[in-house]
Amino acid sequence: MAIRRMHRPAVALIAAAAPLLILTGCSSSSDNSTSSSASASQEQKSALVITDQWVKASDEHMTALFGTLSNNSDSEIRIVSGSTPVAGEVQLHETVSEGGVNVMKEKKDGYVIPAHGSLTLKPGGDHIMLMDQKEPIAAGQEVTVELRMSDGSTVPVTATARDFAGNQENYQP
């Protein structure tokens, strides 16, 4: 009889714990999938790295972001747009020569950075324009621009403004 009494409580305990074990198992796999998608998102963000970034100090109208964009992933990355609190519009630009004059034009298809490759944004070349500037940007001020990729992910870039008088291109919308 003593064995039966001990056996019944053990069976009751196992029966009571079974739903909790099942829920814990479901919860654990759900947490793993959430972790996996958080890791994938983090990998996308860490795949694009910008170095030597800076913004041209400007009193009004427009300025530009420069630096080197590096892709540390096994797939190409396409930057398609951007946004910033200091300007009404962000455009991806290239500079081309038309009739001996350097002209800035919007690069409608965005910038493609090949797998394990890089793209240099520089005055007189590819650059990110901050149009309809909302306030003066002084040398030494930090400016944040959020870049958006074709997959919808975003990467914030913080750059310090500096004085620069070179490359006075014309803008051709």
UniProtKB/TrEMBL annotation:
Record Pfam families: PCuAC
Record keywords, A-Z: Signal
Domain of life (superkingdom): Bacteria
Residues annotated as signal peptide: 1-30
InterPro entries linked to this entry: LpqE-like, Lxx211020-like, PCuAC_sf
Keyword Transmembrane helix: no
Protein's recorded name: Copper chaperone PCu(A)C
